[in-house]
Amino acid sequence: MKFAHSLIAVALSAAALSAHADSVTPLTTPDWNTFYFADAGSHWLDDFAANAPGNLSFSLSLSGPAWLKVTDLGTTGDVFEVFDNGRSLGLTSAPQLANTQDIGIDFDAAFASRDWSHGQWLLGAGTHVITGLVSRSPVGAGIGGLQVTAVPEPDAYALLLAGLGLLGWAARRRAVRGESVHA
Known about the structure:
Layout: H1 2-19, E1 23-26, E2 33-37, E3 56-62, E4 66-73, E5 79-84, E6 87-91, H2 107-112, E7 118-123, E8 126-136, E9 142-150, H3 154-182
Parallel strand pairs: 1-3
Antiparallel strand pairs: 2-9, 3-8, 4-7, 4-9, 5-6, 5-8
């Protein structure tokens, strides 16, 4: 009977601990992935700050190199420190202008603009756990995003150039044949 009570106590304790665990989001597509944050000094969150979120990390396993992109969205002025497996990759850029323009939820537009903080880092093959910390947030809570895209293989470029060369050769050969027939 004591064993059963102990087992129930351990199970309830484990359930209570897991309710407050950090969220880990596996990245499997090259889409933008959203994160939220509170004031400066807070970690990336899995929900709006008012909803009692947990810290958020993104996990991925790469078979080759890939680009990690991080951008602010919404209100400008936020700067993030980005970590890979607990090691700092650095800070996102400081926004150039205080912009009140509303770009909606367009991470590509925010990443391309100097008005929003953004950064890009090259990740190598292997397992990565990406986390972030808010270094500066003049307005408070906000939203950001990250994206991981594969670096094109050099073989793909070689194949593309070979294909273009073959097309050029075929066009040249056809042109030469056309000249000799009509001459």
